[in-house]
Amino acid sequence: LIYDVVIIGAGASALMSASMMQDKKVLLIDSNPDIGAKIKVSGGGKCNITNKYCDDTKYNTSSRLVKHIFKNFNNLHMLKFLNANNVYPRLYERLVKGAYFLNTSKEIIDVFRKITSKSEFLFNTQVLDASIKDDIFCITTSRDNIYSHKLIVASGGLSYPILGASDIGYKIAQKFGHSIGKTNPALVGWSVQREQFWFKELSGISIKDVEIKVGKKVCSGDFLFTHRGCSGPSVLTASLYWNKGSVNIDFLACNQELPKRFKQAFEKHSKQDLRKYVFSPAGTFGYTKAEVTKGGVCVDELNSKLESKFQKNLYFIGEVIDVTGELGGYNLQWAFSSAMKMFN
Ligand SMILES: Cc1cc2nc3c(=O)[nH]c(=O)nc-3n(C[C@H](O)[C@H](O)[C@H](O)COP(=O)(O)OP(=O)(O)OC[C@H]3O[C@@H](n4cnc5c(N)ncnc54)[C@H](O)[C@@H]3O)c2cc1C
Prior knowledge:
Layout: E1 2-8, H1 12-19, E2 26-29, H2 37-41, E3 48-51, H3 64-72, H4 75-84, E4 90-91, E5 99-101, H5 106-115, E6 120-122, E7 127-133, E8 136-141, E9 145-153, H6 168-175, E10 180-186, E11 190-191, H7 198-201, E12 206-214, E13 217-225, E14 229-231, H8 233-241, E15 247-250, H9 260-269, E16 277-279, E17 283-284, E18 292-297, E19 314-316, H10 330-341
Helix pairs in contact: 1-10, 3-10
The protein binds flavin-adenine dinucleotide.
Flavin-adenine dinucleotide binds near residues 10, 29, 127, 155 and 335.
């Protein structure tokens, strides 16, 4: 048996692409027991599905291809797609500007279940390797070898290993000659050095509308002290642009009254300016806590349909590619937009 298409993964990007190929013999393989494991937990179970302000400037890339990808299928297309399937996301901007949420992630999982009903699924199965011989891909799994004419790698990144994440996408890419942009946890909290251990005493306190400057990027949003360091929307987005070194925090960006306990601790432990607080994170909370992985398959080594420039009929879509969005629905939008580019 040779499938027309095998897709590694049954997450957001895989499901969107499968829905476009219901006339073909398609198999999706996933180590999870069901579709959309990550969609289910996204946005705290309410799935921040897209963002009103989605364009390529919200991603850590300068690739022209990414611009084209969003021209082809953007946030408006996504909302139209959802409405056509009787799902009506709501704008909820308390934490991130322009964010659209569902009532529950189940809404979109149910849509995908319906519109991929002609695809086959192989769950609880680990993909271990892929190779090609006489134009047929051989996918080695924890069960049998599976054969296909086309292979789509939609295996995501390294974040949340508990939901099936693995490095198989990068391994396959490298095997076919691709370079992999250095991977790191992103949209994740920061741990602190000894100098900022006082942050931990403030665990649970949040400050509204802080601005964090990382290089030239200014990331705004709430700032949350945690028992390990700091988190919250401003930190999560800043972590996308941070590699090493210091960032500048403006705790007074919106001239609000600061929490008393924070003011007292700041006076006690720091001689710095509240508007220009220089801070060098020790590191991040790691892949177990990171919403996404930055780095991955080099986008410029893929053609305009996201097919490998080195191997015909091999495609990469979604988070496995070295394109990562800010907090606010940008990463699911990327998963959907990149999946749709294969068909236009
Ligand atoms: C807690 C959390 C909350 C999030 N919230 C949001 C949000 O609200 N909005 C937003 O835009 N983004 C959010 N994200 C990010 C978003 O969910 C992902 O970027 C997106 O789902 C990626 O889609 P994907 O199809 O590329 O990969 P994934 O959805 O990760 O799918 C990849 C699939 O491949 C499978 N797989 C991997 N390796 C193997 C293997 N070797 N064998 C078999 N199967 C394998 C995995 O099990 C997985 O199911 C969140 C992420 C997390 C972790």
